[in-house]
């Protein structure tokens, strides 16, 4: 069975992409497929390098039995484009930036995370950073739907 290496990417790597990493891991484990995935997340910006996920996201995820406390932010790096099979952008700006950063012949690995969940009618996971706690709940719901759709496509 194929092993998949997935990198989830947003801007700061403290809100959306660590939630996507944690939720995808949870959904894959629930389906009995944890061993088929290597997961990581990163940001296109370096501002939060070394920081844990936003406390609002950690709290919202913990209420769903998903522990994000061990994750630390990092910036996307060149070798990500060779090491990972798929690089999943949370929004169009991330997608554009990643496509520009992609090394020779690797741009096909960059995709919008919600591409596999067309039923949502959304192409982007909105940035909850400047909003309230409820934004993190909505983002977790979107990410859960996106993760289940991506998992179904890959297994
Ligand atoms: P993220 O959210 O890209 O989902 O991690 C953000 C986190 C921090 C900032 C912007 C977005 N910031 O401007 O510091």
Q: Find the count of extended strands (DSSP E, 2+ residues).
A: 4
Could you tell me the radius of gyration in angstroms?
14 Å
Q: Which CATH architecture would you pick?
A: 3-Layer(aba) Sandwich
Largest sheet: 4 strands, parallel
The H/E string reads: EHEHHEHEH
Give the strand content.
5-15%
Which stretches of 5+ consecutive residues score pLDDT under 50?
none
Secondary structure tally, helices: 5
Total domain modules: 1
Helix content: 25-40%
Amino- and carboxy-terminal Cα gap: 9 Å
Structural class: alpha/beta
Which CATH top level class fits? Alpha Beta
Strand order, sheet with most strands: 2-1-3-4
- CATH superfamily name? Response regulator
Descriptive notes:
The termini are close together. The protein has 155 residues and is an alpha/beta fold. A 4-stranded parallel sheet has the order 2-1-3-4. The chain has one domain (4-154): Rossmann fold, CATH 3.40.50. Strand 3, helix 4 and strand 4 form a beta-alpha-beta unit. It is globular and about 40 Å long. The chain is built from 5 helices and 4 strands; from the N terminus they run E-H-E-H-H-E-H-E-H. Helix 1 (16-30) crosses helix 5. The structure holds 4-nitrophenyl phosphate.
């Amino acid at each position: 069975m194929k092993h998949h290496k997935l990198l989830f990417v947003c801007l700061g790597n403290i809100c959306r992409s660590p939630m996507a990493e944690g939720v995808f891991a949870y959904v894959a484990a629930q389906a009995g497929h944890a061993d088929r995935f290597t997961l990581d997340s990163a940001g296109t910006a370096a501002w939060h390098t070394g920081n844990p996920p936003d406390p609002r996201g950690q709290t919202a995820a913990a209420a769903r039995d998903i522990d994000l406390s061990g994750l630390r932010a990092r910036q996307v790096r060149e070798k990500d484009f060779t090491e990972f099979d798929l690089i999943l952008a949370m929004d169009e700006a991330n997608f554009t930036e990643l496509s520009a950063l992609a090394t020779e012949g690797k741009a096909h690995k960059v995709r919008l995370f919600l591409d596999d969940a067309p039923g949502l009618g959304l192409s982007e996971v909105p940035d909850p950073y400047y909003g309230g706690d409820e934004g993190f709940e909505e983002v977790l719901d979107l990410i859960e739907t996106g993760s289940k759709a991506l998992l179904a496509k890959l297994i």
